[in-house]
Amino acid sequence: MTTAGDIMHRGAQWIPATETLDRAAQMMREMDVGALPISDSNERMCGMLTDRDIVVGCIAAGHDPSRTTAGDMAQGTPRWVTTDSDVSDALQQMQGHQIRRLPVIDENKRLVGMISEADLAGHLPEGQLARWAEDVYAMP
């Protein structure tokens, strides 16, 4: 059985809910990523922040990214898998909720990695990857 821990990329980092979006953008640039999980004060996931959220939800809406926090942008129910989850569970989460990046947590509920499209492309057979993309990118 291939697990989420087998295909994730390590080194993912939280952005605290209290951190500003300008700092979030700097972190994304430094880590060369397009999304950060948002953590509450107990380092529990309370949302996801994407580069698109910053641009469309903050800047294009006329808000100041130096005054808007990651927590202000947190919406919906966060999704994740554990390191020992079967890859099929990760795919189900991503397909069912049309998400492109999925945080991976360990047994202590600490963030240890992320599964992205690139991770899937490197580990899934072509047909399975095509089905995943079809489901994730389908218009609701």
UniProtKB/TrEMBL annotation:
Pfam families in the cross-refs: CBS
Keyword Metal-binding tagged: no
CDD domains tied to this protein: CBS_pair_HRP1_like
Superkingdom of origin: Bacteria
Keywords: CBS domain
InterPro entries linked: CBS_dom (IPR000644), CBS_dom_sf (IPR046342), Diverse_CBS-Domain (IPR051257)
CBS domain boundaries: 8-66, 73-131
Protein name: Hypoxic response protein 1
Organism: Streptomyces sulfonofaciens
Organism lineage: Bacteria, Bacillati, Actinomycetota, Actinomycetes, Kitasatosporales
Name of the gene this protein is made from: hrp1
